[in-house]
Design a protein that fits this description.
single chain, 7-stranded mixed beta sheet, 7 strands, 8 helices, alpha/beta, Maf protein
């Protein structure tokens, strides 16, 4: 059994297309630490979720990275959506010379076993509440962050899809889908199958699924 830490059933269905029916939804409110890198956020979430359930888990984190805004909203995409709204984000981007952007997704896997972990970026500017959270067992030193705290390595899989920020179009999808155009259509104008075939999450899941199929069970 592989637990996908998410409240979005659509993500679980998408993961099953790449990994199989052993993927089940796991509703767990892990601590989303403040970091400028979505890989670090997903990795720490995976370790925390594994500590909670004691079984293999995956956590995903994603964001919209706009070139002309220095990567903003990036790891703060959910916050920007909630506070500004996607229309306001699109208006900000429209003022720039370029509307190029990327959707990025990172899948983080942890099963308590010993495997070649993915080196993670070290965020040296974490906020006080994140450091306090480390008292519950999260990594606190550069070496622990890179190699997995408490003997719990994490493997990261990234998917990226380039596109353009445009005025909202389409009724499907969620989040920034209506303002993200890929190959002439926004993600909100695509069917679920069409979107999954080209999406950042689909690309990350494809990489993970290939690796997971060869992964021996943890001891």
């Amino acid at each position: 059994m592989l637990r996908f830490v998410t409240t979005n059933e659509g993500k679980v269905a998408e993961a099953r297309e790449y990994v199989g029916d052993e993927v089940v939804q796991f509703d767990f409110d892990y601590t989303e630490v403040q970091s400028d890198d979505i890989g670090a956020v997903a990795a720490r979430g995976a370790r925390e979720a594994y500590r909670e359930v004691g079984e293999p888990v995956i956590v995903d984190d994603s964001g919209l990275f706009v070139d002309a805004l220095g990567g903003f909203p990036g790891p703060y995409s959910a916050y920007a959506e909630d506070t500004l709204g996607i229309e306001r984000v699109q208006e900000l981007v429209a003022r720039e010379d370029s509307q190029r952007a990327r959707f990025r997704c990172v899948i983080a896997y942890c099963d308590g076993g010993d495997f070649a972990a993915t080196p993670e970026p070290v965020d040296r500017g974490r906020r006080g509440q994140d450091v306090a959270a480390d008292e519950r067992g999260r990594a606190t030193t550069d070496d622990q962050v890179r190699h997995g705290e408490g003997g719990r390595p994490v493997k990261l899989f990234e998917g990226v899809v380039p596109g353009t920020v445009v005025p909202p179009r389409g009724d499907g999808g969620f989040g920034y889908d209506p303002i993200f155009e890929y190959d002439g259509r926004t993600f909100a104008e695509m069917s679920r199958e069409e979107k999954n075939a080209v999406s950042h999450r689909g690309r990350a899941l494809a990489k993970f699924g290939e690796w997971f199929a060869e992964r021996e069970p943890a001891d």
